[in-house]
Amino acid sequence: MQPGARIRVLGPIDVETVDGPRSVGGRNARRLLGALVIGAGRAVSADRLKWAIWGDTPPRSADGSLQTYIARLRAVLGAETIERADHSYRLVVDRSQVDAIRFEDLVVAATDLEHDPHRCVDVCREALNLWRGDPFGDFVDDEPFGLESARLAELRTTVMETALGCELALGHHEIVVAELESAVEEHPYRERLWYMLIEALARDERRVEALRAVGRLRSTLAAAGLEAREDLDDLELSVLRGDRHDQPISSG
Prior knowledge:
Blueprint: E1 6-8, E2 14-17, E3 20-22, H1 27-38, E4 44-45, H2 46-54, H3 62-77, E5 82-85, E6 88-91, H4 99-112, H5 117-128, H6 143-169, H7 173-186, H8 191-203, H9 207-223, H10 231-241
Antiparallel strand pairs: 1-2, 2-3, 4-6, 5-6
């Protein structure tokens, strides 16, 4: 691949170049590239690639069409980026040249930096900025991509939680309230996000809103037949008393 180019699957599948985004072709070519990305660095059988493109009913021309799509991808990515070995193909790129792989590397780095919130939050934000939409775009729920999409989305939520926790640790509670409000709307059963929202509101001396958030959490969980963590009562009492929340009160 040319310097500065990156395959992107954390959103619609395409290739980002120094001159801007570049299409890799139609629906089938994008599905093929997505399947190669999932198996990046490993040999992916031609049969599996055909299944990723056409499902269980490939056309009679599938072998020839697969060769055509491979050739088109090589024309965009570079001939050396897709190797053939027997009846398999392997995507050969640097880890930094695929946004999903780069994202996972940043997740690992952020985990190692949780003791240093200044650096950790920067790494988390860099990871989150790689996202442009649903993983694999229009194919997010399709069988060949669904499991990987769900795994990546869960990692994204975890990184978001880590970033917000770091922001709170740095005393940026005023900044993250709006982001936490959006987060609990998107992920209403992630108790850690609710606890951080309550914490941020309490630190910002918005006790009434913090108590309302406690009530919203209880109602949300009850509607789903779930019970809140036992320490929610302690958190509510702490807010009622007006305790200072200079230290994190949400343990995850």
